[in-house]
């Protein structure tokens, strides 16, 4: 959906953190303003399917106060997820309060989940649950999965041209990816460096002494 940012985080929880455009800028842009935005974004990132989108939207319209409450929970979770993985990307240790916030939402979802077969094994599933917190629970589960099973050295923050700050999970073979998107931030940085080199050469050329000029 063009109304939402590109999905460059590599993990659901990092996509969620990236629903703020330019988080390191003085005036970042937030793509989520209410529960309906959260639902549409969740569908956009395939965290809910068509049937769940329709059911949860109907429920939200029937219980607007509860929808606002859940949306506020989602925003608090986003703040915790962002701080956790931004700290990890910088080589630091996440705050206990943020970890507990993720844990709380994860345990809520686990308490509502059912155990069922998935191919050759069993797993917890949130399918068929008509609860406005469903997107929040799936985001929290993604964060816990990354924290407990992911390679945290591959969680990175995109520098962009000193204006991006999005988080992403580096899935490159040798773990040397620098930008959230080579086509976006990577290209802009290459263009900036090209311009700087061209300008430097131009200054050197025009600064030369020309012995035969008057």
In round numbers, the mean pLDDT is 87
CATH class: Mainly Alpha
Overall body shape:
globular
Share in helix: 40-55%
What's the main sheet like?
Answer: 2 strands, antiparallel
Q: What's the CATH topology label?
A: Jann2411-like fold
Overall SS class: mainly alpha
**What is the radius of gyration computed over CA atoms, rounded to a whole number of angstroms?**
22 Å
Give the CATH superfamily. Jann2411-like domain
Q: Give the domain tally.
A: 1
Beta-strand level of the residues, as a percent range?
A: 5-15%
| Distance linking N and C termini | 62 Å
Number of strands: 6
* Element pattern in H and E: HEEHHHHEEHEEH
Strands in their spatial order, largest beta sheet: 1-2
pLDDT < 50 runs, ≥5 residues: 192-196, 209-214
CATH architectural arrangement: Orthogonal Bundle
